Amino acid sequence: MTYLEGRAGVPKGAGLEVGVLVGDAVQVSTVTTSLADVASSDAALRAFLHGLPGVDRVGADQRAAMLGTRSIKTTAKAQAIDLAISMVDLTTLEGADTAGKVRAMCAKAVRPGGEAPSVAAVCVYPDLVAVAAEALTGTGIKIASVATAFPSGRSSLDVKVAETAQAVASGADEIDMVIDRGAFLSGHYLKVYEEIVAVKAACGPAHLKVILETGELSTYDNVRRASWLAMLAGADFIKTSTGKVSPAATPPVTMIMLEAVRDFRAATGRQVGVKPAGGIRTTKDAIKNLVLVNETAGDDWLSPEWFRLGASSLLNDLLMQREKLTTGRYAGPDHFTLD
């Protein structure tokens, strides 16, 4: 299958092979719909997205559950904890957020505790980006900001683009946008595609993370379709959730998105990151996600450049487990600052 012939370095006639989980085995299916004019109309986009192989829900649930039983001990666990800390997007997205709270969170992001590494990014609302940018100057930690009428996405495209541009002008390195789930579920795929393209353009040098809000997409097939739609439109990352809707970052959903980025790179040569967010609260949760990455997409994604964990309370649990491995004793929950 061709991928927008002449773009992304993919030659004419290139085939797209998509891994399909059947029981415990992965079968390879070739999608034959041409993508030369995939975004020319709703009909063309629908033909491609609905031509993707369906997801075996039982198989996906079973494989994700099986991978969740992997046990990581001692030195490997210590390395996994530090890697997970380095992947955290430390987040506060509350109506009661203040400049003081953001500054305190930024200080923790730089020095989480002991010899632990810094986190990957701090994620805040657009009006607090400038505060975070000032606090994190010279640290190398990214400033991420939600935009596009987060978390509902219910606003005009002009407003979404303006909010994105404002956040980038204030110092955001990354924009986390939400798709219009109503449009997606109504089959208006081209509208969703064009909004992502417009927001990506407004990002300028900033990276774009596209939030699918998988808890509202109803089916695993829709998760796969939304993942491909976002990547075709230019997403640098695909993200599970806003954290405001349940269920959020479930292991099967994260696995399906990891399969999508793996297959997308095989087809186009372009690597896209994945960010599960919402409901990831414990070290065990974080390590399960690292296993999913390694076993599904491969170790090319095992870095903060390509995999993030969106969380607020997770960091303290990682620090507590790190302290236990280092000293042999559990630190109390009040040993670390509360976020």
Structure description:
- This is Deoxyribose-phosphate aldolase.
- Keywords: Lyase, Schiff base.
- It is an enzyme of class 4 (lyase).
- This protein has 339 residues and is an alpha/beta fold.
- It has a single domain (57-335), classed as Alpha-Beta Barrel (TIM Barrel), CATH 3.20.20.70.
- The chain contains 12 helices and 10 strands.
- The strands form 2 sheets. The protein has an 8-stranded parallel β-sheet. It has a two-stranded antiparallel sheet with strand order 1-2.
- Helix 2 packs across helix 10 (251-268) and helix 3 packs antiparallel against helix 12.
- The longest helix is centred in the last third of the chain and has 18 residues, at 251-268.
- The model is unreliable at 1-15 and 20-33 (pLDDT under 50).
Quickly describe the structure.
The protein is α/β, with parallel strands linked by helices and 339 residues long.
The number of distinct β-strands equals 10
What fold name stands as the CATH topology?
Answer: TIM Barrel
Helix-strand pattern, N to C?
EEHHHEHEHEHEHHEHEHEHEH
Oligomer status: single chain
Which CATH top level class fits?
Alpha Beta
* 3D shape: globular
* CA radius of gyration: 20 Å
Q: How many domains, in number, for the residues?
A: 1
Q: What is the structural class?
A: alpha/beta
User: What is the averaged pLDDT score?
Assistant: 89
Q: What is the strand content?
A: 5-15%
Strand order of the largest sheet: 9-8-7-6-5-4-3-10
Distance between the termini: 48 Å
Residue runs with pLDDT of under 50 for 5 or more positions: 1-15, 20-33
The major beta sheet can be summarized as: 8 strands, parallel
CATH superfamily: Aldolase class I
Q: Count the DSSP helices.
A: 12
